[in-house]
């Protein structure tokens, strides 16, 4: 959690967005690249930060992270006009 957010300076690793309240609560969330449920380590090296919206999209398979740390968006997701926003991150 917090260690991952610190590592990424509380910015979304995908979009670069950083949003904070005047009391310095940050919107960014930490996520596992490989889910712990799929034997991913619960370790900062398996974590990155996402906005809440992108975290939701990542958890639902609308994009993934390749081993070279680039973003991959499945073809069927890219074809949907509703997901045009995601294309900028690939």
Mean pLDDT: 95
Major sheet details: 2 strands, antiparallel
Strand residue percentage: 5-15%
Low-confidence stretches: none
Distance between the termini: 25 Å
Number of strands: 4
Cα gyration radius (Å): 13 Å
Structural class: alpha+beta
Overall shape: it is globular
Order of helices and strands: HEEHEEH
Helical residues, percent? 10-25%
Biggest β-sheet: strands ordered side by side in the sheet: 1-2
- Secondary structure tally, helices: 3
Describe the protein's architecture and organization:
With 90 residues, the chain is an alpha+beta fold. The protein contains 3 helices and 4 strands. The chain has helices at residues 2-7, 52-59, 75-78; strands at residues 29-32, 47-50, 64-65, 71-72. Strands 1-2 form a two-stranded antiparallel ribbon. Strands 3-4 form a two-stranded antiparallel sheet. Strand 3 (64-65) and strand 4 (71-72) form a beta hairpin. The longest helix has 8 residues, at 52-59. The mean pLDDT is 95.
List the helices and strands and how they pair.
Blueprint: H1 2-7, E1 29-32, E2 47-50, H2 52-59, E3 64-65, E4 71-72, H3 75-78
Antiparallel strand pairs: 1-2, 3-4
Could you give a short description of this structure?
The protein is of the alpha+beta class and 90 residues long. It contains three helices and four strands; from the N terminus they run H-E-E-H-E-E-H. The chain has helices at 2-7, 52-59, 75-78, and strands at residues 29-32, 47-50, 64-65, 71-72.
């Amino acid at each position: 959690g917090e260690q991952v957010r610190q590592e990424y300076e509380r910015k979304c690793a995908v979009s670069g967005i950083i949003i904070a309240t005047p009391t310095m609560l940050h919107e960014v969330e930490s996520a596992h690249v490989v889910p712990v449920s799929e034997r991913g380590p619960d370790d900062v090296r398996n974590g990155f930060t996402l906005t809440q919206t992108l975290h939701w999209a990542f958890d639902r398979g609308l994009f993934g992270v390749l081993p070279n740390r680039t973003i991959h968006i499945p073809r069927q997701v890219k074809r949907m006009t509703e997901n045009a926003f995601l294309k900028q991150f690939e």
